[in-house]
Amino acid sequence: MAEAAHHYKFDITMTCSGCSGAVERVLKKAEGLSSYKVDLETQSADVYTDTVPYETILEKIKKTGKTVKGAEADGTIMSV
After folding, report:
1. Cα(14)–Cα(67) distance, rounded to whole angstroms?
2. How confident is the model over 59-80, as pLDDT tens digits?
3. For residues 52 and 61, is the Cβ–Cβ distance under 8 A?
4. What is the 3-state secondary structure (H, E, C) of the chain?
5. Long-range contacts: 34-40, Cβ < 8 Å, 24+?
6. Which domains can be identified in the chain, with CATH numbers?
7. % of the chain with per-residue pLDDT over 70
């Protein structure tokens, strides 16, 4: 698989598998993602896409009610 044009990394407060499951569900429904990985242990989500803007993914994650503590888009620290 070719590498996606964009890599977004989100630092999310997730304390249980229900929390990570909620984030996983919104990313699964999101169209245009090449791949994603939600990691409960590191409380992070990595999202790979060619077309979806950073802000769109941030909003989807915030709709789960989880706190996004920090984020990067293509290695650049972004506001949350």
Report:
1. 8
2. 999 999 999 999 999 999 999 9
3. no
4. CCCCCEEEEEEECCCCHHHHHHHHHHHHHCCCEEEEEEECCCCEEEEEECCCCHHHHHHHHHCCCCCEEEEEECCEEECC
5. 34/1, 34/4, 35/1, 35/4, 38/14, 40/14, 40/16
6. 6-78 (3.30.70.100)
7. 98
Task: Compute the residue count for the chain.
Answer: 80
User: Rounded to an integer, what distance in angstroms lies between the CA atom of residue 56 and that of residue 46?
Assistant: 14
Locate 50 and state its tokens: 């060619």
Distance from C-alpha of 8 to C-alpha of 33, rounded to nearest angstrom: 11
Report pTM: 0.93
Cβ neighbours of residue 69 closer than 8 Å, sequence gap 6 or more: 11, 12, 13, 80
